[in-house]
Amino acid sequence: VIEQGLPDRAVVTTCAYCGVGCSFRAEMQGETLVRMVPWKGGKANRGHSCVKGRFAWGYASHPDRILTPMVRARIDDPWCEVSWEEALAFTASRFRAIQAAHGKGAIGGITSSRCTNEETFLVQKLIRAVFGTNNVDTCARVCHAPTGYGLKTTFGTSAGTQDFDSVAAADVVVVIGASPTDGHPVFASRLKKRLRAGATLIVIDPRRTDMVKSPHIRAAHHLALRPGTNVAVLTAMAHVIVTEGLVDAGFVAERCEADAYADWADFVAEPRHAPEAVERLTGVPAAELRAAARAYATGVNGAIYYGLGVTEHSQGSTAVMAIANLAMATGNIGRPGVGVNPLRGQNNVQGSCDMGSFPHELPGYRHVGDAAARAAFETAWGVPLDAEPGLRLPNMLDAALDGSFRGLYLQGQDLLQSDPDTRHVAAALAAMDCVVVQDLFLNETASYAHVFLPGATFLEKDGTFTNAERRINRVRRVMAPRAGLADWQVTQRLANAMGADWAYEHPAQIMEEIAATTPAFAGVTYDLLEREGSVQWPCTDSAPGGTPVMHAGEFVRGKGRFVITDYIPTEERTGPRFPMLLTTGRILSQYNVGAQTRRTANVAWHDEDLLEIHPHDAEQRGIAEYDLVRLASRSGETTLRATLSERVAQGVVYTTFHHPGTQANVVTTDLSDWATNCPEYKVTAVQVSRANGP
Ligand code: SF4
């Protein structure tokens, strides 16, 4: 693994940006990283990379890094630099005092999809076994929680069905609510290669992304739906498939629950779900919708890839289940070239979910009320565990405002910038007695923190990330942690400061514990990963090297379950005051809230977030290219510069959120998915006007 060669040595590790999980050779001169070179042996990327993984690693040595722990009694006090021991003793004593006064459930924590599986496992273990509560949640709450709910309900497990290689066998590809070129660039290249070779592409997206039309790529169908109408469009596609006799009856009879299918088929066949009936609502011409549904259903292999444009809605979970329904109805599950594939945003969002980061689920997606599952962890950890689900992140924030939740351990998530309704988040954080931020930089949330614990970059630790295709990739320490400790060591020390006696010496030992307690990870060891390069869970007796395609022969839950997906409009409505709809997304060179990429040369490609507005709407408002505009909603307002673009339809505006000054989440609503509380970032009624200013 560690190769002696140019320049001095190279360490193979995994990119810490998106869910593709590209492998790189980190080339070193002494202790200095000089180059990241995409590694041909990486099974997720096969020697390819994008501008983030290849060039945007300079943040690791950026002078903004905080390298010394800091504490302060109150959030308006100045920070005081202290030793690790003092910082952790301070934290432990505050957490203990809160629990003594207000009960065990008055504190909790958030795991990070940026950290390794081993680190995430330890954070949820800290909260469950040491804090004694299930108040654990993850940043997946604000992105792919609906994927977890939707795919577990229909298929039996919360993960994408295919490996990336599978796309090479697809004849028809549906991309819905995703811009792979921006969010998952290396997978996008593989997808485009297949499209250039002749596969049919259907894009379902309010924006004309470059998947719709770009050099050498042209979608056969672009369903440019009105934001917030995914479920109506997907159910209308199901209507076409059922009423035009395009169902794969053999697959459904053999593989799916008969009664649930019959109820679903009756439901989608109702005339109110016909493309013609929903055309005005969705903005999608009925003939185009019918043609797309026929193309997907009649292809030999139809594959669906989706992103946050599906999940971040008040019906995010419903839309995921509507997608699963389409795949089951057409028999597009269980072989290469088909499937339902969430394009996971962060490097380890799949892993953070797998590792038990939800308040109702232990590692491996087993409910905390499952006595047998709980017993396995109680035996391993030597403590009784709570059988009641804990608080989700939004509920923690609400409880902070009524005084019943008072302490939060935040590993690697900038709540204030990334969560909706910024004012509500700020008020909740300000109401707590102990907010602990473990991060690389003094982020926006840190202004409400009492303790700052320096984090370590992916270059500074060992561990594993699990990518969007369930592939467990090794992360290898390239250099020593600049602040002295890797994140898993910080969590271990905090646990011990609160009375535990953990003694992990290396993340490999944590993986042994994961494998022993979490069936999907059974058999996964660092030795196996060294031998295989990487593996896709589950590793079973019959497939010890992993499972590229899931649900072959049988769904994880046994029979696939169709779910009725009634379209319920979002409560967010346009009107005279807020006549336009705002939707948000990402750009290739930047990553999420930009904490890392803004501290690299990549910022030159995108040094501010712009508001895309259709030229007709701009003209009506007297807005010219690069004018400063006021963007206002029922939640709040911000200003940013406009760019005129026909990528958005009239009545729709779009922006990214990579720069904190943009304050996009001051504007977004506080509405969320009915099943998971995932915020509805993708639909906000807004007013756009020319701002005074240069
Ligand atoms: Fe690969 Fe994603 Fe990293 Fe780009 S950001 S190199 S696509 S893992």
UniProtKB/TrEMBL annotation:
Keywords: 2Fe-2S, 4Fe-4S, Iron, Iron-sulfur, Metal-binding, Oxidoreductase, Repeat. This is Formate dehydrogenase major subunit. In the C-terminal section; belongs to the prokaryotic molybdopterin-containing oxidoreductase family. Residues 8-64 form the 4Fe-4S Mo/W bis-MGD-type domain. It comes from the Bacteria. The lineage of its organism: Bacteria, Pseudomonadati, Pseudomonadota, Alphaproteobacteria, Rhodobacterales.
